[in-house]
């Protein structure tokens, strides 16, 4: 009985394989798609606008719309409060000093550092933002301020950051988004291996001579932004440097829109 039932199955399988001869194999199941390698990048956190014609990858704030025909990366500030959004956060999730005052990022006086020792509770707030990025048509998400713990005089640790990062990356992957590490060169290897990041979005790696810290971990899947006010050498030399990631853009510091006289946008193409 077993043999008589197996023969038709084998015959059917053989016919199916014969019919597929010469056809390419099926793609693997859909999952997060990484940014295209070496394509032109625009970084639009200061305001959304129509990208230049040669741009293939665009990064925008989570409050902005994705771009249908481009690979779109959604910016999420996952480790400290976004300007103007302090009231989103319960008091108990804000890091506080010995006097009970919220700890403000010294480089960003309108952003309060989140207490990443409470990763689960923070993820409950940030997670819906990530899911919104997916439903809004973005292809990936970048999480900013992964290295906030370095600015807390030891109150927060690298492990705290990794715990939260892992939760956020898992959320991104669950909704089909690739997850981008933002800066934090010294932690790139751990963020990749322990938190599961897929690619990196990096600022001023040429200026600080740390591009290889990212490319050694993520290969060509690095999106780089340099700024005009801290360019270490002429732009054409930055472009010619083999250490510079293939997808790199030169922007003005405030990332203004093209109608602003301060707007700068240059690529190496």
Automatic annotation (TrEMBL):
Highest taxon listed in the record's lineage: Bacteria
Keywords for this protein: Signal
Descriptive protein name: Endo alpha-1,4 polygalactosaminidase
PANTHER family: ALPHA-1,4 POLYGALACTOSAMINIDASE, PUTATIVE (AFU_ORTHOLOGUE AFUA_3G07890)-RELATED, ALPHA-GALACTOSIDASE
Chain ranges of the Glycoside-hydrolase family GH114 TIM-barrel domain: 41-256
Signal peptide segment: 1-23
């Amino acid at each position: 009985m077993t043999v008589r039932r197996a023969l038709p199955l084998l015959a059917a399988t053989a016919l199916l394989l014969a019919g597929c001869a010469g056809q390419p194999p099926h793609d693997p199941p859909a999952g997060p798609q990484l940014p295209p390698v070496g394509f032109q990048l625009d970084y639009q956190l200061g305001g959304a606008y129509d990208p230049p014609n040669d741009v293939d990858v665009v990064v925008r704030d989570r409050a902005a719309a994705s771009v249908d025909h481009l690979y779109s990366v959604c910016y999420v500030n996952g480790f400290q409060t976004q300007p103007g959004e302090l009231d989103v956060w319960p008091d108990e999730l804000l890091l506080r000093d010995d006097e009970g005052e919220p700890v403000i990022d010294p480089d960003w006086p309108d952003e309060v550092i989140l207490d990443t020792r409470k990763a689960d509770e923070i993820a409950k707030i940030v997670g819906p933002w990530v899911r919104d990025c997916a439903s809004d048509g973005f292809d990936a998400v970048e999480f900013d301020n992964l290295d906030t713990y370095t600015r807390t005089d030891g109150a927060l640790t690298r492990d705290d950051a990794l715990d939260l990062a892992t939760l956020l990356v898992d959320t991104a992957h669950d909704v089909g988004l690739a997850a981008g590490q933002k800066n934090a060169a010294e932690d790139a290897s751990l963020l990749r291996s322990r938190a599961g990041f897929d690619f990196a979005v990096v600022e001023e790696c040429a200026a600080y001579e740390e591009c290889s810290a990212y490319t050694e971990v993520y290969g060509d899947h690095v999106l780089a932004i340099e700024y005009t006010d801290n360019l270490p050498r002429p732009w054409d030399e930055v472009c010619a440097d083999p250490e510079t990631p293939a997808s790199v853009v030169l922007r003005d510091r405030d990332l203004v829109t093209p109608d602003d006289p301060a707007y700068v946008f240059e690529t190496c193409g």
